[in-house]
Design a protein that fits this description.
Number of strands: 10
Number of helices: 10
Radius of gyration: 24 Å
Shape: globular
CATH topology of the largest domain: Rossmann fold
Helix content: 25-40%
Structural class: alpha/beta
Order of helices and strands: HHHHHHEHEHEHEEEEHEEE
CATH class of the largest domain: Alpha Beta
Strand order of the largest sheet: 6-2-1-7-8-10-9
CATH superfamily of the largest domain: Vaccinia Virus protein VP39
Number of domains: 2
Strand content: 15-25%
Length: 280
């Protein structure tokens, strides 16, 4: 009896990890989910279905959601879950001075405008916004007359904008003088010196949500490498919505890979090495 008691008292208890639910496999549900995501943010995942299937399945499993269809229903009513999905499927990889000729053209144009509002949509992790700020300062523009707003549907990217901390790789287009003037070294990272720049503001905004119209009017809009993920319908919706928040004669700069649908609300213009769309 004593031996039996000893064995019982000294048995090491083991706590089993809770079993994860099986991965969802409903193909029709995945189709509904992809269509729902497109209706929310314009991103068309149909051509990347095989790539995103596993990512979305892992998300369902981690959140104890049995099917893709159930996830589709949930993101329609649950804003927190919807934001997590948007963070999951959006890409945020960029760097300072990307497609520099466009940035320089916009700043050169800004010299003639006086007060100026610029929108970057999407702004990713902030490199484009801060690049414009650096160019405005280095070209001796009156930074107190300029404001630059960056918006993105990815809340994690917006958090990085506010943090303003970047890797060496992100700054590879800048020379040593620019790095020293506009950044503080923090361990192996570089922190932007915001006090040298025009006012830079950031927010989580979906361009297909009417909250975008509360941002006011802008003189210049940058929207680069976003509509490459849209179908023709959503490409047209995008440029039409930007048209509503551009001041008369305002400029829309798109990425070199962006195929902008024809519309008579813009006039396509080309200056040396740079194409932009002027509001008409």
């Amino acid at each position: 009896m004593f031996f039996d008691k000893f064995k019982k008292d000294n048995t090491i208890s083991s706590t089993k990890e809770p079993e994860l639910p099986p991965l969802p496999s409903d193909s029709l549900g995945l189709d509904k989910l992809i269509e729902n995501i497109k209706s929310i943010c314009g991103v068309d995942l149909e051509s990347k279905k095989d790539i995103v299937r596993q990512r979305l399945a892992n998300f369902c499993q981690a959140n104890n959601i049995a099917t893709f269809e159930n996830l589709s229903l949930k993101i329609s009513v649950n804003r927190t879950l919807r934001q997590e999905i948007l963070n999951l499927i959006t890409i945020n990889e960029t760097y300072f001075f990307r497609e520099l000729a466009q940035l320089q053209a916009a700043i050169y144009h800004a010299k003639n405008l006086g007060r100026l509002r610029i929108l970057c949509a999407p702004c990713s992790s902030g490199e484009e916004v801060y690049s414009l700020g650096i160019l405005a300062h280095s070209n001796l523009l009156n930074t107190s007359q300029i404001s630059i707003t960056g918006i993105d549907i990815n809340s994690e990217a917006i958090d990085k904008c506010f943090e303003g901390l970047y890797s060496e790789r992100s700054l590879h287009r800048l020379n040593d003088t620019q790095k020293k003037l506009y950044f503080d070294k923090v361990d192996d990272k570089f922190k932007i010196k915001k006090d040298l720049l025009p006012r830079c503001e950031f927010g989580v905004v979906n361009i297909f949500d009417d909250s975008i119209f509360r941002l006011g009017k802008f003189d210049i809009i940058f929207s680069r490498n976003m509509i490459i993920y849209f179908n023709e319908e959503y490409k047209l919706k995008t440029v039409e919505r930007f048209h509503k928040i551009l001041n008369d004669g305002g400029r829309l700069y798109m990425g070199h890979a962006d195929l902008v649908p024809y519309t008579n609300i813009y006039k396509k213009l080309t200056s040396p090495n740079v194409t932009y769309y002027a509001k008409v």
